[in-house]
């Protein structure tokens, strides 16, 4: 199993989201450290979305739609719905939130991101069905829109959530 390189590769940079209903689309977030990638996929409409959140909270007008979980999650969920997904039947998966910075006891950004994402989703009536959160290694993730597979690539392996 490998991550795909193709013309239908849509990349979510930091603070960005990508959405698609195309069965050939591969939604990717590269180099997640303490950031979190949230994948949302509707198995009936085959609509997928991937957002690359950087921090748990921040100003609403940051210029990046999903840079912060507290101000960007609703925007991402609304965009997924506007694309045709029904959130009540969507599958939510997340990866990232690694402990990349441990300066003087650590800022624990990854841990704070994971906690903020879990709380924000629960507050909206959703939960993660699978995660690859924490640890101390970076990851790259890919959501396959055709079938909802969520691939996680670390330095030494590729796995599926």
What does this structure look like?
With 161 residues, the protein is of the alpha+beta class. The protein is 18% helix and 32% strand. The protein contains 2 helices and 10 strands. The strands form 2 sheets. Strands 1-3-8-9-10 form a 5-stranded mixed beta sheet, with no helix packed on it. Helix 2 (109-123) links the parallel strand 6 (91-96) and strand 7. The mean pLDDT is 90.
CATH class: Alpha Beta
Question: Radius of gyration from the CA trace?
Answer: 14 Å
Instruction: Compute the separation of the termini in Å.
Output: 13 Å
Q: Helical element count?
A: 2
Q: According to CATH, what is the topology?
A: 60s Ribosomal Protein L30, Chain: A
Q: Got a strand count?
A: 10
Provide the residue-averaged pLDDT: 90
Secondary-structure-based class equals alpha+beta
């Amino acid at each position: 199993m490998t991550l795909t390189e193709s013309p239908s590769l849509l990349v979510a940079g930091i603070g960005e989201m990508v959405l698609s209903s195309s069965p050939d689309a591969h939604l990717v977030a590269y180099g997640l450290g303490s950031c979190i990638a949230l994948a949302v996929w509707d198995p009936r409409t085959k609509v997928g979305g991937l957002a690359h959140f950087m921090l748990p909270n921040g100003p609403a007008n940051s210029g990046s739609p999903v840079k912060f979980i507290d101000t960007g999650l609703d925007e991402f969920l609304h965009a997924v719905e506007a694309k045709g997904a029904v959130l009540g039947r969507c599958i939510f998966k997340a990866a990232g939130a690694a402990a990349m910075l441990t300066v003087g006891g650590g800022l624990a950004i990854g841990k704070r991101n994971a906690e903020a994402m879990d709380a924000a989703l629960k507050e909206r009536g959703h939960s993660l069905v699978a995660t690859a959160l924490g640890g101390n290694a970076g990851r790259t993730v890919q959501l396959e829109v055709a079938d909802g597979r969520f691939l996680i690539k670390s330095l030494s392996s590729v796995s599926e959530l």
